[in-house]
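STRUCTURE:
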């Protein structure tokens, strides 16, 4: 009986201990829940406070940057116009209303803005953005212009308007940019007739303390792309520029020292891998240029515009000259020569032509006249036996084919030497003083066609039949074997 009571007491104590543990566990859980609720409440209060501060900050920030929205727009126009003309020497007029935008950075924008020079409308801009300083929007008087972007512009320029670019270039002395983008330049003569167009992708005026006034331009003229960089330092009175075209594979680097309206300089021109240096000077209305190796000299008259170039070369590779995508063929295909305001003559003196034996003392005279290109009074000697003359010849671009149409005359100096070289049989060695061919040369297809052949100033039916048959065969006349056989057969038919 005693043992049962002891066991009962021990069991009751164990139950009390378990109850206390369970009660303690749930009390701890309850305390943790209460503590979590307290902390969560504090976190909510902190989060709400942070969110409220952030919201107030965003509202304050946005409100500050939106202050220009409430400026009087007429006052803004006047303010911007005055600052632009004072800072950049650029007279603008807002045709339509202006608006304010915050992104990507604060700026005013307008459509149909006009730019003037000496009261003459020079540029019409369809889309203009004027970026402003964000330092103090609370004071309207503190409004300051920074960068300017003129987009979708139409330039109408004449010769006397070219100072417009130099005025902007030399007026900007800040670290801000003036950019003209996606523009067309119509360059006109006195009668308002368009001389040529320039597709101006981007023109950027900028400034730094070292190189001073600078501009960079990417544009196309006569469908040829160019990049142009210019730097002008008026303190040291020197000017640098770089002009290059990847398509034409050339680059010009120039250094110019100037004084008043006269100047002299030195520039290097690289065509493919050939580099040449030239000295030049300008005096009054004449511009003179000469290569350091004396192989080139040029004279350009400004009023009226006319230029004359003389080249003295040792050798010329005709195959490279007329191959597809050569500089010469790209120039011809661009039809740059068809400008009616280009008047010039180019004289080329050659010692020889590569891959053509015995052809020496070559003089080629090319004349540019009111959009036409002529080759006249040109000559060469072959093997000291024939004087070759090219007369009344014109360069044409028809249906994307470049053609030379003209006449070639062979005056025989030593007929016996000529016959011996081509091994003409004695029975065909006639006394001939002159042979004249009219020809059509297709430079793209490298084919030649002869017409109206005359020997000693007389036509010959047999020769004309022979020539017509040769033309119909479309032979490669520039092949040495075909040319030699042509000469031998020519005299047999005669």
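SEQUENCE:
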């Amino acid at each position: 009986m005693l043992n049962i009571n002891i066991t009962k007491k021990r069991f009751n104590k164990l139950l009390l201990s378990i109850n206390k543990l369970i009660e303690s566990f749930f009390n701890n859980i309850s305390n943790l829940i209460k503590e979590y609720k307290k902390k969560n409440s504090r976190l909510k209060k902190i989060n709400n406070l942070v969110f409220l501060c952030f919201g107030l900050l965003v509202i304050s920030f946005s409100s500050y940057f939106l202050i220009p929205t409430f400026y009087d727009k007429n006052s803004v126009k006047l303010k911007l116009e005055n600052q632009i003309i004072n800072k950049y020497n650029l007279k603008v007029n807002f045709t339509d209303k202006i608006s304010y935008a915050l992104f990507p950075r604060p700026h005013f924008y307008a459509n149909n803005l006009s730019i003037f020079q000496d009261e003459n409308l020079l540029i019409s801009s369809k889309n203009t953005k004027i970026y402003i300083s964000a330092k103090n929007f609370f004071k309207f008087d503190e409004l300051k212009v920074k960068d300017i972007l003129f987009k979708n512009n139409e330039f109408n320029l004449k010769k006397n308007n070219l100072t417009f670019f130099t005025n902007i270039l030399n007026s900007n002395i800040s670290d801000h940019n003036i950019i003209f983008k996606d523009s067309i330049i119509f360059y006109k003569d006195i009668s308002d007739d368009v001389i040529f167009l320039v597709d101006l992708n981007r023109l950027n005026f900028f400034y730094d303390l070292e190189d001073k006034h600078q501009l960079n331009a990417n544009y196309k003229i006569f469908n040829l792309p160019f990049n142009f960089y210019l730097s002008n330092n008026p303190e040291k009175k020197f000017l640098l520029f770089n002009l290059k075209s990847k398509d034409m594979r050339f680059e010009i680097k120039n250094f110019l020292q100037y004084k008043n309206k006269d100047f002299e300089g030195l520039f290097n021109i690289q065509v493919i891998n050939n580099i040449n240096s030239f000295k030049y000077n300008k005096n009054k209305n004449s511009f003179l240029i000469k290569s350091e190796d004396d192989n080139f000299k040029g004279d350009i008259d400004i009023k009226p515009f006319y230029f004359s170039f003389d080249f003295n070369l040792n050798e010329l590779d005709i195959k490279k000259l007329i191959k597809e995508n050569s500089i010469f063929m790209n120039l011809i295909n661009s039809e740059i020569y068809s400008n009616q305001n280009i008047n010039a003559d180019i004289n080329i003196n050659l010692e020889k032509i590569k891959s053509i034996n015995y052809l020496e003392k070559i003089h080629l005279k090319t004349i540019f006249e009111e959009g036409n290109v002529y080759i006249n009074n040109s000559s060469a000697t072959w093997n000291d036996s024939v004087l070759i003359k090219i007369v009344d010849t014109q360069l044409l671009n028809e249906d994307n084919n470049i053609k030379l149409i003209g006449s070639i005359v062979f005056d025989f100096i030593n007929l016996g030497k000529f016959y011996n070289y081509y091994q003409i049989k004695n029975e065909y060695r006639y006394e001939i003083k002159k042979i004249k061919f009219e020809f059509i040369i297709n430079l793209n297809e490298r084919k030649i066609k002869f017409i109206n052949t005359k020997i000693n100033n007389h036509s010959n039916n047999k020769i004309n039949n022979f020539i017509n048959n040769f033309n119909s065969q479309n032979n490669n006349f520039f092949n040495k074997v075909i040319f030699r056989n042509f000469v031998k057969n020519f005299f047999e038919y005669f």
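REMARK: Residues 304-493 form one domain.
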